Amino acid sequence: MGKIKIIKGDITKLSCDAIVNAANSSLLGGGGVDGAIHRGAGPLLLAECRTLGGCRTGQTKITKSYNLPSRFVIHTVGPVYFEHTPSDAEALLTSCYENSLNLAKEKGLKTIAFPLISAGVYGYPQSDAIKVAIETMKLHQNDFDEITLVLFGEREFEIAKEDYPEFL
Ligand code: AR6
Question: Which Gene3D superfamilies match (predicted)?
Answer without folding.
Answer: Leucine Aminopeptidase, subunit E, domain 1 (3.40.220.10)
